[in-house]
Amino acid sequence: MAIDSLAAPATSSGGTPRRRRSGVRGSENLAGWLFVAPVVVILGLFLLLPILMAFWVSLTGWNGQGSPFRSGVPFVGADNYTRLFTVDGLARQDFMISLRNNIYYVLFVVPAQTALALFLALVVNNRMLRGKSFFRTAFYFPSVTSSVAISIVFLFMFSSTGAVNRLLAMVGLDGPQWFADSRGVLHLLLGLVGVDSPPTALADGGPGGLSWWDWLAGPSVAMLSIISLVVWTTSGTFMLMFLAALQGVPVALDEASALDGANRWQRFRHVTLPMIRPTMFLVLTLGLIGSWQVFDQVYVMSQGNPAKTTLTPAYLSYRTAFQDFDYGRGAAISFVLFLIIILLTLVQRRLLAERDASRPGWLRRRPPGRS
Amino acid sequence: MAVVTDPPRVPTRPAPTRRRREPRGLVTTFVGYAVLVFFALVFLYPFVIQIGNALKTEPDAAANPLSPVPDPLDLTSFQRLFDGTSFPLWMGNSLLVTVLVTLGRVFLDSLAGYALARLRFRGRTGMFAAILAVMAVPGVVLLIPKFLVLNQIGIYDSYAGLIVPLLADAAGVFIMKQFFESIPASMEEAARVDGAGVFRTFWSVVLPMARPALITLTILSFQGSWNEFPHTLVAVQDPSLFTLPRGLADLVTGSLGSGTQYPLKLGAALLATIPVALIFVVFQRYFVRGANEGADKG
């Protein structure tokens, strides 16, 4: 996406008068600014300015009354941030719980959606099958629907008398009360081998004022249903990316290795996978970035309940500001989340840049969609 | 890092698979279809359940949640949706917001995309870098910030607050810029030589050539603004300004008489899904293109 070479002389020549052309250049300069002005104003007003305002608010104790820029609003410095990390209290506990929940959410969602997306792409890409476009459409459709509407459907499916528990009953399993069940799945697994209470070594002392036992709870049963909803909705999009990449793998290469006697797994592992590695990186990092932003589903399905086990930083920041009217701390949580996501984005861009620079010429394919 | 780390492993044994190829192909095909059909059910059956249960009575939905067939067929949920809730109002608001936001985005994003692709103006490089940076800002961290601005400039809890902040989006600018760079400049140059102004050239020469990109952008904007939820959460609180997603969320999280009322909620969610579903079926390939463009924006 490099800007074409015309840009360089234009930017330097704006001031120097140039015979006849300068009039055209001048009008182009003006027109250029006029053309981008509306977008710049809107993005500046509703994106850039708000971020600066929110940073100010995160240093205050504003409670939502009047303007946050009045003189009477208490300035608290970094207090809102230290309350999240170092000062022992409910604020820190909630924040640490939300971090824990989101970490488990990421650990489950990212591998699951990536594996499912790749698997579906491989099957759909199979040369011997017909009706691909129907299946591709079917798998992708959930991705385009409203997150709120689809959350309602899953709320119904995961209700205690819902479709999921009926399916489980068919194979003889007793489904849980999904959205009322705050037990962590790792705790449940440990319970199966007889460990019901924390061993003394784990009973306390974990980072952030949360005991090691609590850190190691795993996602709750309620969180699992949100995880399954998200994997179900996002896999289709990532499948499309994998499909675009798979279509760039030369058929001849696959056939040649098949003739050489490589079996299906060997061909996938040593031919296909290396060829689509860039897309793999892309899907993994986009998944990482996206899964720190989970909000709509939490808002509609669980609101952080039961027992705060579906609380995520995004939802916690919203709740802290708009329900507890502690706008300062809410904004501080937003900024910490912002930092996490920006770091992941930078890592992703670095990886992509490295990849583009280091690929041997004969392998340099167009990544999906880049034109 | 090298892309091909391991060369294809050299086979140690000769290829005896050749002889068995036919039956194996059949088995593969069968397994392939079985997998496809299984996952098609996984991805589509929830919608079947949604449609079926929206047409059931509440006891029927609770007793037979898996069955797609309502017994008896019951349309009272839809009736109650239109008579007993603000559903028609939400729908109207959604329609208004979606139409205005889509028009705004298509027009403003193309203008900016064209300028960034073609016009030589000072600060263009910096501007494009800024737009790329803006695309990386995650929406959920903007909830409180957006509320602050809307509150400060006095358009909180109004149609303006609901619509204006969504009128331009960086990803759309990016898509349009990429497209304009891919079409040849000769037509525009001819128009310019004939004395047409910049806007005139853009409007009557360039835009007509940009149809595919405009359709993609229209569809993405429509889908995005129709489904938009978090923004409405911090832009309005007056129930008469709710859009469909906000109204639906309210329906689910608020108290709504007795019982779970699942048929009603599913019906509401269904009606909110239909417009995007229709557009998806008709314009599928544009969605696919949009998804892959989006992949690149990171």
Description:
The complex is a heterodimer of chains A (371) and B (298). Chain A is mainly α and 371 residues long. In chain A, 65% of the residues lie in helices and 0% in strands. Chain A has a domain at 81-184 and 219-359: Orthogonal Bundle (MetI-like fold). Chain A has helices at 7-13, 21-57, 79-85, 90-124, 132-144, 147-157, 163-170, 185-192, 212-215, 221-246, 251-259, 264-275, 277-291, 296-301, 313-322, 327-358. Chain B is mainly α and 298 residues long. Chain B has two domains: 26-74, no CATH class; 87-243 and 265-296, MetI-like fold, CATH 1.10.3720.10. In chain B, helix 4 crosses helix 8 and helix 13 (244-253) packs antiparallel against helix 14 (262-282). Chain B is globular and about 70 Å long. Mean pLDDT of chain B is 84; it is low at 1-21. Chains A and B meet through helix 1, helix 2, helix 4, helix 5 and helix 6 of A and helix 1, helix 2, helix 4, helix 5 and helix 6 of B.
CATH class category label of the largest domain in chain B: Mainly Alpha
Major β-sheet profile of chain A: none
Helix content of chain B: 55-70%
Q: Which two chains form the greatest contact, residue counts included?
A: A-B, 135 and 124 residues
- The percent of residues in helical segments of chain A reads 55-70%
Tally of DSSP helical segments of chain A: 16
Can you write the helix and strand succession of chain A as a string?
HHHHHHHHHHHHHHHH
* CATH C-level class of the domain at 81-184 and 219-359 in chain A: Mainly Alpha
Overall strand count of chain B? 0
* Computed Rg of chain B: 26 Å
Largest sheet of chain B: none
Total beta-strand segments of chain A: 0
The unreliable regions of chain B are 1-21
CATH architecture of the largest domain in chain B: Orthogonal Bundle
Give the N-terminus to C-terminus distance of chain B in angstroms: 20 Å
Mean pLDDT of chain A: 82
Low-confidence stretches of chain A: 1-22, 360-371
- The CATH H-level homologous superfamily of the largest domain in chain B: MetI-like
**Quaternary state, please?**
heterodimer
State the shape of chain B. globular
